[in-house]
Write a structure and sequence with these properties.
By secondary structure, the chain is of the alpha+beta class. Strands 1-8-5-10-3-2 form a six-stranded antiparallel beta sheet. It is globular and about 70 Å long. It has one domain: Jelly Rolls (Sandwich).
């Protein structure tokens, strides 16, 4: 007799959270972000890097520091669930979590018809998140405005037959496209490549999302410094 074990190797954690009763908050955020986008350069990211087109507006990267009640509520929601994910994935207790001091950058996107965001990741951070405020008018287009995670295992498609074509998660081949729902927050490692496919509503719908990157310093542990004179 022999026994076998399937080992879940090299899995990538992606955490999904759905905010309950998000309609009022999302309506406030939608109104505020749309008004900011209409003012253009005053709120825009002055130095965009990732490939996009003019149909996508990207704000400055200081959003969670803005003094707006709806933004503050969303920030608290994001931080609460990010710390919960760190607890669950690392096995940390409350005392350890209290020693993790967060630094971040945060922003929003307002995407109109045809807007997209190219493949990228987020260097110099450990965790990233995307929250969906709204995605309107494209429910009849299954490929519109999808946040798509790029498989980090590009070599796994070098040869595909029916012995590997239908592998079940987390062993499946290919990328993971996701249509975000209003009130949904996705958390993922910042190194994971991702993109947003073109947003193609049937009318004048909008896709509005909030994103952030986070890195952490452990209280009581100082970073190494080079020796004096170097």
């Amino acid at each position: 007799m022999a026994s076998s074990t399937i080992i879940t190797a090299f899995a990538v954690p992606i955490v999904s959270i759905q905010m309950e009763d998000c309609h009022t908050l999302n309506a406030e955020l939608r109104s505020f972000f749309f008004a900011c986008a209409e003012q253009g350069e005053r709120y825009a990211n002055p130095d965009p890097f990732t490939h996009r087109n003019p149909a996508l507006f990207e704000s400055q990267f200081t959003l969670f520091d803005w003094r707006h009640p709806a933004v503050a509520r969303l920030r608290d929601f994001c931080w609460t669930h990010l710390y919960q994910a760190l607890r669950d994935l690392n096995g940390y207790d409350t005392q350890m979590l209290q020693r993790l001091h967060i630094a971040h950058e945060s922003w929003f996107h307002v995407t109109r018809r045809g807007g997209y965001f190219g493949v990228h990741n987020h260097p110099m951070h450990s965790w990233s998140g995307v929250y969906c405020v709204c995605q309107e008018g494209d429910s009849d287009n299954p490929d519109s405005g999808k946040l798509t995670f790029i498989s980090p295992y590009a070599a796994n498609t070098m040869y595909v037959d029916m012995a590997s074509h239908r592998l079940t998660p987390p062993f499946q081949l290919g990328n993971i496209p996701t249509r975000l729902e209003p009130g949904q927050l996705l958390l993922f490692p910042s190194w994971l490549l991702h993109e947003v496919t073109p947003f193609e509503p049937s009318g004048d719908g909008l896709r509005i999302t909030v994103a952030f990157n986070a890195r952490f310093r452990l209280q009581g542990v100082e970073p190494q410094r080079p020796p004096a004179g170097l």
